[in-house]
Fold each of these.
Amino acid sequence: MATFTRIADDQTPSIIVHPEHEIAKINDNIYGGFTEHMGRCIYGGIYDPTSPLADENGFRKDVIEAMKDLNVPVVRYPGGNFVATYHWLDGVGPREKRPKRPELAWLGIEPNTFGTDEFMKWCEVVGTEPYLCLNFGTGTLDEALAWLEYCNSTQDTYYANLRRQNGHEEPYNVKYWALGNECWGPWQVAQLTKEDYAKKAYQWAKALKLLDPSITLILCGETGYSSWDYYVLKECVKWDVHGLSGDTTKSLIDMHSIHIYTADADHLPNATAPRAAERAIQMTTALIDLARIENGVPETVPRQTICFDEWNVWDPTRAPGEQGAEEKYTLSDALAVAVFLNGFIRQAKDVGMANIAQSVNVISPLMTSKEGVLKQTTWWPLLLFSKYMRGASVAVNVKSPEYEGRTNPKWVRGTIETPLLDVCAARGVDGWVGLAVTNVSEERDFEVRIEGVKEGEVKVYVVGGESVGVVNTEGEEKVGIVERTWDGKGLFTFGKHSFTLLRWKA
Ligand code: AHR
């Protein structure tokens, strides 16, 4: 377990790591990405055929390299809100025949020059797995079945043959499919009530699994702590006792999606806001268990996990979606991203996937320009986590002072602690232990007693900066990683407003 004990400001903080006490395996998919037809994410982000930086497919090579560096295991596509009016057939076949369409989520024009086959190719080049989201707005079940057939079928049937005709003999075997996106939101084209959604999702799930029982289906949740989440889980997390999916040992629904964006103009409410995401994971897990208990789902049916398929720092009033949502991230935001990731590791047992929203240009750590890519402040903790915090989440006990001021959302105060030192630990399959420590304090360096660290060479990676407000701009990347080593003896100082990763071989 990860425990936190609050201490007085004048006491010495401590961290005890237990590399042998495994909490749960960390699913690599928590380092997932998300590419939506929105702003400059697809066009001008991952796909820019007129750019000298593009490869023969029109894909930005620098973006591909960045995705490879991040080792992104899975990428969600094509939305987001965009998907609510997306007809996938518009985006396949000869480009000159593809229709341009009005786009109603972000009020643009969708040229459809990038579609399913281009996305699959991009995933192959990047070395990542596709995760597709179905149109629950203007889309039909027939269309969804046709897309699944196009992507996965090996049979001699119309849409599988259409894929072959488009030059793709082999199926793409897309495993992850989402049953809509944010269908509860008033901004959705064809917003649904929870009753209508649950009914529709269950029927679609049945049909989709009849066509391909091997897929993983993701139910559309809200934040994880709403009556929508409770209701749709209760209605849809059922034992497939009649074998509707062809398998009586499973459930039609495999995962439950939740989304949370956090932001605040003040540093401490901003950096501690992702504690809400961790509490949301705990609440969602309870609702999943409740649905299983109330519906009598036997323990032989694998427990549904959480698909946190949109998370990040985002204030839509300062970076509106219709204007491309190009957030400029500060060091404070980078610390918030680290707190999000700490939470995913601590709650590894219940998180089957998480996708930073988004991967390029739109509320993203990675920004393209004509000349190249800029790594925003938030890139650096994400990179360190993805590189080094895989394997298993391990127990850690933390004593530190706590932030006591205003939180955002307000309910964080009273439901979950807000430590100044936010910590998680992992043990990799290679035997290396990683200790991730976010010191959110704006004023205080903390000298910390660390137990469980091995004396000898400890690798130290620090993401920090002059002040919590610094941002990276082209030509001036003020926030990056500073590396050094430590001998593992005595107290270790975690500098104010910094993220530190310590690594040693167990
Ligand atoms: O990621 C940006 C948008 O945020 C997505 O399109 C939507 O699902 C969410 O509201």
Amino acid sequence: MKKKPAVTSKKLYLSLSLLAIVALASCKFKEQEAKYNHSFKPGKIWVDTDSLHINAHGGGILYYDNTYYWFGEFKTAGPDGNSAQVGVSCYSSTDLYNWENEGIVLPVSNEAGSDIEKGSVIERPKVIYNEKTGKFVMWFHLELKGQGYGAARTALAVSDNAVGPYTFVKSLRPNAQQWPMDYSQELRTKAYDPELKWWTPSWYKAIDQGMFLQRDFEGGQMSRDMQLFVDDDGKAYHIHSSEDNLTLHISELTDDFQGFTGRYTRIFPAGHNEAPALFKKDDIYYLMASGCTGWEPNEARMFEARSIWGPWDSLGNPCVGEDAHLTFHSQSTYILPVQGKEDAFIYMGDRWTPENPIDGRYIWLPIQFDESGKPVVNWYDEWNLSIFDN
Ligand code: DGJ
């Protein structure tokens, strides 16, 4: 009798094929599991569709043609990672959970002396779309290479496409030789003692009255942390920390969004506000900001106004619960209106990691409104957009 082989070659082939199919399927499952996000998990690694941690810090969002575009600072590892080594990055998404890397849309320049030379500081890029010109307009905080944070400029880049490439146009200190709209004639010529000791009552009074405003009148006002806001009537505004980060300025942009009209106002002189993030709900403007403690988190503050030109009132800290006094270890960068949902806004904050900037985390949390209508931010370990349906 012929001896039967323990495993026929046909059987072996079948088992191997089955094994291969199972292995392939489980790989695919793992890949999908890694790539597909169904919720926001503030503070955790947030992978893009290539399974890499999103690299768009100090970001802002443009919604255009049914797609969200997230622009931000591309950080690198190590001690130089907070200066611009690469440029401005962009990601796109239709559901806000899953983001596709669109690459570097404004690269740094390798030309010595260029405003955006590699090693300069490029922070908080924001992009808005101009209907009249069909251009995508990016403004960002720029510090010239080798000058620390002394230049305090805002900078402009434009593109014909949301995902770039953006062409660098200019950098400047805004509103040179312009007084704020509501600044009294009498204060414009008032003299101050340049030796006034910082943080003393007389120094506060001098700041309030515009001592630094006068100092920078000729060359333009300082502009550091910034945001852009397009109002319902199509007018755009540039909101920035000015006067040595002591006072926020809101400036109107020209119709093409590529310049300043010279109309501007000051908010909370000597209030020491950074990281402005403005949004509008039911005809009320809300402005969230942080204090000034470098990369360390601090307590957020919210303001409200019926007109963008003010008067602005303080609503205090919008964050509630554990670690609310540290904005849940984050700093505001943008407040995102969610499309297709009523009264749905997302607080976007950065949890900076200056020792290794590329590892910075994103703190996205829903903005909710209490019985009096005041915006509040609660912590959630994990949440999704259905929170806005309740
Ligand atoms: C706080 C600002 O909000 C950041 O954008 C950055 O400029 C750091 N300060 C630098 O210390």
